[in-house]
Specification:
Elements lengths: L16 E4 L2 E4 L13 H4 L2 E3 L3 E9 L8 E9 L2 E7 L10 E4 L4 E4 L1 E6 L2 E5 L2 E4 L1 H10 L2 E6 L6 H11 L7 E3 L21 H14 L3 E4 L5 H13 L3 E4 L6 H7 L3 E2 L21 H9 L6 H12 L3 E4 L1 H5 L16 H15 L6 H17 L4 E3 L13 H13 L3 H7 L2 H6 L17 E4 L13 E6 L2 E3 L1 H6 L9
Parallel strand pairs: 4-7, 4-8, 9-12, 12-13, 14-15, 15-16, 16-17, 17-18
Antiparallel strand pairs: 1-2, 3-21, 4-5, 5-6, 8-19, 10-11, 19-20, 20-21
The structure holds zinc ion.
């Protein structure tokens, strides 16, 4: 069974200005100076660019888990939300561009935590699709994201920088360093660590190069993980992991901040697990199949992770593609036809696998994630566009919210997991992740009401990032049928 590879922050001081039809208009007194000067390359995807924007009569789901508020008005100025309240009580400035959003909903821009800028195109090979993926993420409503592992080295760090500087469209990116992994996986695009000193050297090398986040991966040892965590923390960065050789409990003790893939890849329940050795994915999953999400053993693990402040990332979207009985994932039409056909073939094969362990495990992991969150753990969400393909950026982020609702979370809770929780983890909750006066104007306008019908989250009409409104249709059209090439 093929394994699935698997995402910081920096604050980029941006000039306060807004480009309208080729000319740059500098705005007066930007209190929180967040708007970038956008190049023509970015402007072509912008449909709302005005110094002051009023979103009137809109339903607000604010990202905190609170119930929706009907008939609200928000004033966006200089990239920030400067007024927000009941429509009747908010004064709309006479020079504002007014968008009457009656019947529509705004949610915070999604903050997704296990994203990638590459895609599996051949066995053990990943194509760098940073250009198309960043556009698709933004089109899908993602305004901030962490990548969950990097196979293109400087490419990932550079595009994150270009986006922050307004040179390219896309979400704000917490860019990971190349994977920290041990030998044996056979993925030629990845480095293999030699020892703990090597792990330290690698963390510092990539932190110096501009990476703002770290990802531990398979076959890493406890000593390498502890050394990497220590160095990352010294630099002010966090480290997550998709592990197998190291158990979740051992990783928490080693100082990890986050664990990827829910509980799917936990090897804590493997009998006679050898330290620092991966038991094999099948072995780990067979052990997990026997664990009761409501039993003492699992609850003790959850309590240990919470005591160590370890967040867990749900990536149901990638596991869905392995699970017979799940629907065809959304967004395949953007793929290059060869890649589309490749995935469709694989999807058919998955559906025909009547002995698959995945249906039972998929349900079990969902119950475990719910349990972890209900116990007070910080549950994050991401999509992981790797596996065997078919997880399409943007579309899959919306699908991840839907899947969390299917796990038993309310729509408001699922939206919080995909917005405020990610911002909280990254230490950016004072700026993004929820809708509040004074926060950055990162907003998704939805035609419908996801609180009553979560599938409405797919009807994204407009995505505001730092107060600039991007047109999802234009972003998608710019890559349609060509995702796989760039
Ligand atoms: Zn991943």
């Amino acid at each position: 069974m093929k394994t699935f590879p698997d995402s910081p922050f920096s604050r980029w001081p941006l000039a306060a200005g807004l480009v309208l039809a080729g000319s740059t208009i500098f705005l007066a007194q930007p209190s929180l100076a967040q708007q970038p000067v956008l190049t023509p390359n970015v402007q072509q995807y912008v449909s709302v660019a005005a110094p002051i924007v009023a979103l009137t009569h809109v339903r607000v789901i604010d990202g905190t888990g609170a119930a929706p508020r009907e008939d609200q008005t928000l004033i966006l100025r200089d990239g920030n939300i400067t007024e927000y309240g009941a429509a009747a009580s908010v004064q709309v400035p006479s020079d504002a561009k007014v968008l009457d959003l009656t019947g529509k909903t705004v949610i915070p821009g999604l903050v997704m935590m296990h994203e990638h800028l590459f895609y599996p195109t051949a066995p053990d090979h990943y194509a760098n699709l940073a250009e198309s993926f960043t556009r698709l993420y933004l089109a899908g409503g993602v305004t901030s994201m962490r990548t969950g592992g990097n196979v293109s080295g400087y490419g990932e760090i550079n595009i994150a920088k270009d986006i922050k500087q307004g040179k390219k469209p896309g979400p704000w990116i917490d860019a990971t360093a190349p994977y920290l992994q041990g030998p044996g996986l056979g993925i030629t695009q990845m480095y293999e660590l030699k020892d703990a000193a090597d792990a330290k050297r690698m963390v510092n090398f990539w932190a110096d190069a501009g990476a703002t986040s770290f990802k531990a991966y398979m076959n890493i040892t406890r000593a390498e993980l502890a050394a990497a965590a220590q160095e990352a923390h010294k630099r002010g960065f966090k480290i997550t992991g998709h592990l197998c050789s190291v158990t979740y409990r051992e990783a928490a003790a080693a100082g990890i901040d986050n664990l990827e893939h829910g509980f799917f890849v936990s090897t804590d329940f493997v009998a006679d697990k050898k330290p620092d050795v991966c038991p094999g994915q099948g072995v780990g999953m067979a052990a997990l199949a026997k664990v009761d999400p409501n039993g003492a053993a699992f609850k003790n693990l959850v309590a240990d992770l919470i005591a160590h402040h370890v967040a867990v990332t749900s990536t149901l979207t990638v596991f869905e593609t392995f699970t017979p009985g799940q629907p065809m994932p959304p967004g395949l039409d953007v793929l290059d036809p060869i890649l589309k056909a490749q995935f469709e073939k694989r999807y058919a094969a998955t559906q025909g696998n009547t002995r698959s362990m995945y249906p039972a495990l998929f349900a079990k992991d969902r119950a475990m994630e719910l349990q972890f969150s209900r116990a007070g753990g910080l549950l994050l969400a991401g999509t992981d566009p790797t596996g065997g393909g078919g997880v399409i950026p943007g579309y899959s982020n919306q699908r991840q919210v839907e899947l969390l609702v299917g796990s038993g979370f309310t729509p408001e809770e699922a939206i919080k997991i995909c917005t405020l929780n990610g911002a909280t983890y990254m230490g950016r909750a004072n700026r993004v992740g929820s809708i509040a006066k004074g926060k950055q104007a990162d907003l998704v306008v939805i035609d419908g009401n996801p609180a009553t019908n979560i599938a409405d989250i797919r009807k994204v009409e407009l995505v505001f990032k730092q107060g600039v409104g991007y047109d999802p249709a234009k972003l998608i059209a710019s890559v349609k049928g060509e995702v796989g090439l760039f």
